[in-house]
Design goal:
This protein is α+β, with helices and mostly antiparallel strands. The protein folds into 2 domains: 74 residues, Beta Barrel (OB fold (Dihydrolipoamide Acetyltransferase, E2P)); 88 residues, no CATH class. The protein has 5 helices and 6 strands, in the order βββαβαααββα. The chain has a 4-stranded mixed β-sheet, with no helix packed on it. A two-stranded antiparallel sheet has the order 5-6. A hairpin with a 5-residue loop joins β5 and β6. α3 packs across α4. The longest helix has 12 residues. The N and C termini lie far apart (71 Å). Keywords: ATP-binding, Nucleotide-binding.
């Protein structure tokens, strides 16, 4: 009858992951929406990218026909995806950073410095004068805390959220942009690109 049936015993399986990448916000022309593309990852390339990573991807650009109801409306148009052959991380991840003896010695010297907290805070956006308390809060945001799992099953997260509020022109955006550059994974977004619920703040 011409029907084909899949034989799982004779099939060969390999890891597969489909991800979507988006154009960097600072590279999008004014008034335009960031473009996105579907990426197919196979084998060792799966789980090589995480949300917020900045990557260069090389691969094969492949068209694929639409399925279902979209195929009826698409006509001769086809969808496209990129079959990745290489993924290069543009930002260093924590687990890839190497600790040299020089770095260990510098850390040991800093541990005994009573002004370590202030020095680290001042190293955040040094071109912006003042805002010591804000920089200290952003430093704690970057460092994070320890996730605590209690015996009753409750999980207390160690990370914190920071909400900066103030008059226009007091360097709020510049501080946040600096944080996204320092953090291994960071995405800078504005009110138009975020959900209204995610940006709602109540003053009690």
């Amino acid at each position: 009858n011409g029907q084909l049936h899949m034989q799982t015993r004779a099939s060969r399986f390999r890891p597969f992951q489909e991800v979507k990448i988006q154009e960097m916000a600072d590279q999008v022309p004014v008034g335009h929406i960031p473009r996105s593309m579907t990426i197919h990852l196979y084998g060792a390339l799966t789980r090589s990218v995480n949300p917020g990573d900045v990557v260069h991807i090389g691969g094969i650009f492949i068209p694929t026909p639409y399925t279902g109801m979209r195929a009826l409306r698409a006509g001769l148009l086809q969808d496209t995806f990129l079959e990745a052959m290489h993924v290069h991380q543009l930002k260093k991840q924590y687990h890839t950073m190497e600790s040299t003896p020089e770095i260990q010695e510098a850390i040991a010297d800093l541990k005994s410095d009573p002004a370590l907290y202030a020095r680290l805070a001042n190293s955040i956006a040094p071109e912006i004068y003042g805002h010591e308390d804000v920089k200290k809060a952003l430093l704690l945001l970057l460092v994070g805390g320890v996730t605590n799992s209690r015996k009753d099953g409750m999980k207390i997260r160690g990370d914190i959220n920071v909400c900066l509020m103030g008059d226009p022109g007091v360097a709020k955006s510049q501080l946040l942009k600096y944080i996204t550059k320092v953090a291994p994974r960071g995405v800078y977004t504005t009110g138009r690109g975020s959900s209204g619920v995610g940006l709602t703040a109540a003053v009690m």
